[in-house]
TrEMBL record:
Lineage of source species: Bacteria, Pseudomonadati, Pseudomonadota, Alphaproteobacteria, Hyphomicrobiales
Originating organism: Pseudaminobacter soli (ex Zhang et al. 2022)
Single GO molecular function: ligase activity
Enzyme nomenclature, EC number: 3.1.-.-
Gene3D superfamilies associated with the record: Ribonuclease Z/Hydroxyacylglutathione hydrolase-like (3.60.15.10)
Official protein name in the record: Ligase-associated DNA damage response exonuclease
Keywords per UniProt: Exonuclease, Hydrolase, Ligase, Nuclease
Amino acid sequence: MRPSELLCPRPEGLYCGPGDFFIDPIRPVNRALITHGHSDHARSGHGSVLATQETLDIMGLRYGDDFAGTTQAATLGETIAIKDASVTFHPAGHVLGSAQIAVEHAGLRIVVSGDYKRQPDPTCAPFEPIACDVFITEATFGLPVFRHPPDSEEIGRLLKSVSQFPESTHLVGAYALGKAQRVMRLLRDAGFDRPIYIHGALAKLSDYYQSRGIDLGDLRPATIEGGRKDDFAGSIVIGPPSAFADRWARRFPEPIACFASGWMRIRQRAKQRGVELPLIISDHSDWDELTETIQETGAGEVWVTHGREEALVRWCELSRLTARPLHLVGYEDEAE
Ligand SMILES: [Zn+2]
């Protein structure tokens, strides 16, 4: 059997014929397997959804309990038969609940890695390389220029700035699922034990992380109405990046705009967004992580889904691996 008979791109998303299901479909389908809870991968309205318990819970928090007709929780490492295919979920190290999905039929194994990273992240299970014939990888940061520094260094820069500017509020933009909680946990690991103030949009997901045993410490709502503006001097406020573009952010005393993203490697991008303290913290693999992971899987063939496909495809070819871009649409560039 050729790999394209096991999985092939369709307008709805990646489709498995032998199992009659889609992985991370962007349109409503009968049966969907979901790698993780980011909204470009996990959409509502499917007939049935198979995903890890955490991903199902996160979808419920975001869309309401009726986000799919039926749901089934996948246990990591457990093989599930779906018609003529079998699937196994493995940790992807991207956000809480994130998984790679190995799809097998007639002795052929394809691993759909979804979004993944290799840097240690105290808020989710680490990525496990899975031996396979075909490895499907993202390429969000698929250029050699992207090399993420250790996250502890970036958090150290944030804490240094907090101590240098005690009258200021440090406003940290971070995506609501995963990145925000990782930044909170990293701050705790670095010894920051004061309250962290959060935008309302982060409350439900942060509470959920805490309920799953990820201690984020003392989180308080970043609302000025009740208290005095001065209360926020010297504090760290975390919110979704969009929140810092509106009036909400201007109410804090002497705000310093920070943004936690792999894109902060690009100075121009930080400047355009008005970011004064760029923090290079990514939930996606950098160039070295992508190329090392491909080698570790032992796959002879690589399909590249979204991001900077060309460079990674070229690298594969130079490494004598068969490679092709899948040109899947609907996945955001920066949905980390
Ligand atoms: Zn993602």
